[in-house]
Design a protein that fits this description.
The complex is a heterodimer of chains A (664) and B (399).
Chain A lengths: L35 H6 L4 H29 L10 H35 L8 H20 L27 H29 L12 H33 L13 H34 L6 H14 L15 H29 L8 H22 L3 H7 L3 H31 L5 H27 L21 H31 L38 H6 E3 L6 E3 L3 H10 L13 H18 L1 H20 L26
Antiparallel strand pairs in A: 1-2
Chain B lengths: L2 H20 L15 H34 L15 H29 L7 E8 L2 E6 L11 E4 L1 E5 L4 E7 L4 E3 L8 E3 L5 E5 L5 E6 L12 E7 L1 H12 L10 H11 L42 E2 L4 E2 L3 H8 L6 H6 L9 H9 L1 H4 L26 H11 L4
Parallel strand pairs in B: 1-5, 4-10
Antiparallel strand pairs in B: 1-2, 2-3, 5-8, 6-7, 9-10, 11-12
Helix pairs in contact in B: 1-2, 2-3, 5-10, 8-10
């Protein structure tokens, strides 16, 4: 539990520290070190967890990227022989699973974890141990799913895992079991994370920060957390049904036992469509921060962006069946979902208009972060418009399950979600690590990715409209048409594009390594930013702010730096970031209490893969895992929020407050 | 918009559209923008304006962004006005797309219901998907000359200009029937019957492919719909209704019949085939295959593809002749079937030699525990080259 501490008012009363038992629990000392590997493994600091989420997500981005390149190599020529049919089916299933659940979601969680508390002027999230638990769950679940590659083959039913093809008869390897159970584990992380961040945002905002003074990134992340809170339970139910069918002989999707396979499709897409907004809204949030900073003017129509985000959060629940226009729902359902899908284009369009008008009349600085943000506007618009073309249900029956859809969602998810995340990397890197990513390399990274992505996914529009279905391990020249620009040509271009795209991502990794080696430190406020996270040191101290700021404006930090001249109405700089920070440090709160690190999150999370392994291979193992789970819950529940004095080594000379050690 | 900007927008969108169209394959068999039947046409009529609107909106957004990038670049100008927006403009920009979409919505609504009509049906075909091929079962429809049920696979034959209603289902996983030139796709779901309207304006061979991921050999589950003139269709029906004739004694084909009776008939039915003792040979695919069926081979050589329509029964030259034929001549050429000279011996023999090596299937006898020993697909029969020669000779007689 965090200590939700308000700054002491002038002459106010200090809040008493919580009662702590006099001896360490269970014979172990709390892992209180602030450096070394233990400080990462047992940390409950939202910033360290954010970085760990990011590192993990980046790792899986590379894994998913390699899978993507293999897919494109297989499809570069007709009758491809790089992968077998079986391996190809596993490859596209795991590419999607990895990119959705193990890259974009955790990367969005990385930014949420790191920046929501900073943007709202809080010292940590509401439930720091639960935060750590969530991270270890995602990591455990991700590793668990991917273990299947080495244990008889990965899941091969597509990420949508339609019944009955995902059943024990049609997918006899353990791949789908690993997939189902692994996703359950990552789902736990999504749920705990969502609850944690919702409570944090609603309860822990700095004094004066009303909801409509909250940064847009935090706003859209809040919408995402609500979507997760309601969407994840649906997929949890679906996954449980599938697990019970595969592992315990249940017949939920067994047609011969009277089941209707469309049940799975409804459950999956009731989760799956909000999931699309879970993937994209964080990136919308990121560029809604980046564009104003580099245009030097506030986000155009802040309330419209916020409310359209919330509207997407509501309408997003009413469009799931547009994934099922060819499933045979009957004309009434199809017509209704067709119209609701068109409706959701409206709040999305509002955002495009607002971003464009944020640029209008601005003073644009084209940094790497700005490149990616503008890239998002253009590429997402293409994806959004192709989305409108298949909201028209009859035309969707021609397009669905073809490469046209693959083109559409890669423009939305790569051009949208991924470009937004990259914009965030370049924008927030100096805040997180105190060093600025190389701008030149960053722009090269951007252009390679833009060229690569348009070469890869652009031709897929043509491939799909000219009839090439998805999920085929081979395509044949018999259906590729005549002429120079036949489908063979476009398949080749797409494959070449994927290599360029991979090089683009590689440039980013080179940039990261180069920046880590560089000794040059970033200025405190390198972009002349507008929001609270820039009002502290880079990287921030463990307790984020020396003084919890009192907020008077949207874009509070901007208004502390600039003031409007009452006569000329021009904004003039009245303070620099350094002066503001120095002022804070001079008036630092006394008695800042931060929660102590804990063993329990990682221990509790580690019991889950034991249970799931047991479900697949041997029930006694699952029972042992379950016992550990219960024990770990008790240990967690009985642990006090702060470590007792006896857990600490005697302070070194000159060190006054051990809790205040900076993040290294 | 000023006249100048309007000209620029029109120019750019025109250029984009032309380059897109010029970049397309010619005669792609599954092109969704080449409707050849009334259902596909009403879809196309609906989608073309939507594509155009989307294209224009895309070009406008692109132009505005580019304009901003050029015009509002930081040139040391003063700090911009800290405006938080113009509500009137915002509301206008919300209502405008809503109106456009409402218009699109009205037409979509109408088309959805038009495409679901079944009252004007003139002919019914039951279409069943299974891993990894399609079976067509024509119920008796005497007014169309179908006096007894016809069962065929891979290629569905329909009379031209006739409103055909497919009743789709599946025997294992979900498949999807899609002939882009004739209509959008509709899933074939086990335990459910879904309908799909089809009709073709002109005789021809219309290609399609299963478009719901259905497991290992999803890529090898194709199909064609062949539209024939009414007279040609009647001839096709008459041929399909006939039983297969046993080959003459002392021919290679007759020996092939013995091999067929020994091996193939366990799964594949040939109507009229008799065992040595004169009793009818009845296939029992339900004992050997998970889906319970295997293609009926009575008129194998009346079709020109096999194994889920994934390989040609016609060699390259003859295939080009039939598939490339004009709508006037295609019917006669199709009805001629696969002659000895035209038979694609290479692929047919490869298939008989080791089917799962050609098309991935669950056919390894050691790995059939989940299905209680039943195959999903065709196993390797371990036939000798001698047997294959005989079988090819026999199969060639199944016209």
């Amino acid at each position: 539990m965090a200590i939700i501490e308000r700054p002491a008012t002038a002459g106010g009363v200090e809040i008493a520290p919580p009662a702590t038992p006099s001896r360490a629990q269970g014979g172990f000392k709390r892992p209180v070190s602030t450096t070394g590997w233990k400080s990462w493994l047992f940390t409950v600091d939202h910033k360290k967890l954010g970085i760990m989420y990011g590192v993990m997500a980046m790792f899986f981005f590379i894994v998913g990227g390699i899978e993507a390149v293999l897919i494109r190599l297989q499809l570069a020529a007709p009758e491809g022989k790089v992968l077998s049919a079986s391996v190809y089916n596993q490859m596209f299933t795991m590419h999607a699973t990895t990119m959705v659940f193990l890259f974009v979601m955790p990367m969005a969680a990385a930014f949420a974890n790191y920046f929501i508390p900073l943007q709202i002027g809080a010292r940590d999230v509401a439930f720091p141990r639960m935060n750590a638990f969530g991270f270890w769950c995602v990591l455990g679940g991700g590793i668990f799913i991917n273990l299947s590659w080495f244990l008889g083959g990965a899941a091969d039913g597509g990420w949508f895992m339609y019944a009955p093809n995902s059943g024990p008869i049609f997918s006899p390897s353990h791949g789908v079991d690993f997939w189902t159970l692994g996703l359950q584990i990552t789902g736990i992380a999504s749920l705990t994370g969502a609850i944690n961040l919702i409570v944090t945002v609603l309860n822990m905002r700095a004094p004066g920060m009303s909801l409509m003074k909250m940064p847009v990134f935090t706003w859209l992340q809040l919408v995402v957390q609500f979507l997760l809170l309601f969407a994840v339970p649906v997929i949890t139910v679906a996954l449980f049904l599938l697990s019970f069918q595969r592992n315990f002989g249940a017949t939920f999707f067994d047609v011969s036992a009277g089941a209707d396979p469309l049940l799975w499709q409804h459950l999956f897409w009731i989760f799956g469509h909000p999931e699309v907004y879970i993937l994209i809204l964080p990136s919308f949030g990121i560029i809604s921060e980046v564009l104003p900073v580099f245009a030097k003017k506030p986000l155009f129509g802040y309330p419209f962006v916020v409310f359209s985000g919330a509207a997407i959060g509501f309408v997003g629940w009413g469009v799931w069946a547009h994934h099922m226009f060819a499933s045979g729902l009957g004309p009434v359902s199809v017509a209704v979902f067709s119209i609701s899908t068109m409706a959701i284009a409206i709040p999305t369009g509002v955002k495009i208009v607002n971003w464009t008008l944020t640029l209008w009349g601005g003073k644009l600085r084209f940094t790497a972060a700005m490149h990616f943000a503008i890239g998002l506007i253009v590429l997402f618009t293409i994806g959004g418009l192709s989305g409108v073309t298949h909201s028209v249900a009859p035309s969707d029956t021609q397009q669905t399950d073809t490469y046209y859809i693959v083109a559409h969602f890669h423009y939305v998810l790569f051009g949208g979600a991924v470009f937004g995340l990259f914009s965030g990397f370049y924008y927030w890197w100096p805040k997180m690590f105190g060093k600025t990513l190389n701008e030149k390399l960053g722009k090269a990274n951007f252009w390679m990715m833009v060229i690569g992505m348009n070469m890869t996914f652009g031709p897929m529009h043509i491939l799909g409209l000219q009839g090439q279905p998805r999920r085929m391990y081979q395509w044949t020249e018999a259906r590729a048409g005549e002429g120079f620009f036949n489908l063979a040509f476009w398949n080749q271009i797409a494959s070449i594009g994927s290599i360029i795209l991979a090089v683009g991502v590689l440039l980013f990794i080179i940039n990261v390594v180069k920046t880590a080696r560089s000794k040059e430190l970033a200025p405190l406020d390198p972009w002349d930013s507008r929001t609270l996270e820039w009002m502290t040191s880079s990287p921030p101290k463990e307790h984020n702010f020396d003084v919890i700021p009192t907020v008077h404006h949207l874009d509070e930090f901007f208004h502390r730096k600039y003031q409007q001249d009452p006569v000329t109405h021009e904004y003039k700089q009245i303070a620099t970031a350094e002066e503001i920070l120095a002022d804070q440090e001079a008036h630092a709160d006394k008695h800042i209490h931060m929660p102590s690190p804990s063993y329990w999150p990682i221990v509790l999370a580690a019991t889950l893969p034991i249970i799931t392994t047991g479900v697949i291979y041997s029930i006694p193992v699952a029972i042992v895992g379950g016992i550990f789970l219960v024990l770990a819950m008790f240990g967690w529940a009985l642990e006090p929020s702060t470590a007792p004095e006896t857990d600490f080594d005697p302070p070194a000379a000159g060190e006054s407050t051990k809790e205040l050690a900076p993040l290294v | 918009m000023s006249a100048k900007t309007r000209r620029i927008v029109a120019g750019v969108s025109g250029l984009a559209a032309t380059s897109f169209l010029a970049g397309c394959a010619k005669d792609a068999p599954q092109d969704t923008w080449q409707p050849k039947g009334s259902n596909a046409k009403i879809i196309d009529d609906l989608q073309q304006p939507v594509f155009a609107i989307a294209g224009v909106v895309g070009v406008i957004v692109f132009c505005v962004v580019v304009y901003c990038i050029i015009k509002f670049r930081d040139r040391g100008q003063a700090m911009p006005e800290q405006t938080h927006g113009k509500p009137a403009l915002e509301i206008g920009m919300t209502i405008l797309p809503a109106l456009i979409l409402a218009g699109v919505g009205v037409f979509t609504f109408r088309t959805v219901f038009d495409l679901s009509k079944t009252s004007d049906t003139q002919m019914v075909v039951n279409v069943t998907g299974q891993q990894w091929w399609w079976e067509y079962d024509y119920p008796a429809q005497p007014e169309l000359g179908i006096t007894a049920p016809i069962i065929t696979s891979g290629q569905m034959v329909i009379p031209v200009g006739t409103k055909v209603l497919l009743r789709e289902t599946s025997r294992d996983v979900i498949h999807s029937y899609w002939i882009p030139a004739l209509n959008g796709k509709r899933d074939a779901v086990p335990g459910r019957v879904h309908t799909l309207r089809l009709d073709a304006d002109k005789p021809g061979i219309y290609a399609g492919q299963c478009t719901e991921f259905c497991g290992l050999s999803h890529a090898n589950m194709r199909m064609e719909t062949i539209a024939l003139s009414k007279e040609d269709f009647a001839a096709w029906v008459a041929n399909q209704l006939a039983d297969a004739k046993s080959p003459a004694e002392n021919t290679l084909a007759k020996e092939g019949e013995a091999v067929f009776l020994n091996q193939c008939v366990r799964c594949h039915q040939v109507n009229g085939l008799k065992k040595a003792d004169g009793t009818p040979a009845i296939a029992a695919p339900d004992e050997n295959v998970w889906s319970g069926v295997a293609p009926n081979l009575t008129h194998l050589m009346s079709r020109n593809t096999f194994a889920g329509a994934s390989w040609d029964l016609l060699n390259k030259k003859c295939r080009a002749d039939v598939w490339g034929a004009s709508s006037e001549t295609v019917g006669k050429k199709y009805l001629a079937g696969v002659s000895e000279e035209c038979l694609n011996q290479t692929d047919l023999r490869r298939w008989l030699r080791n089917a799962p090596a050609m098309k991935p299937m669950y056919a390894d006898p050691t790995q059939l525990t989940p299905t209680n020993g039943k195959y999903r697909g065709m196993p390797n029969l371990g036939l000798s080259e001698d047997d294959i020669d005989k079988l090819v000779a026999y199969l060639s007689t199944l016209k």
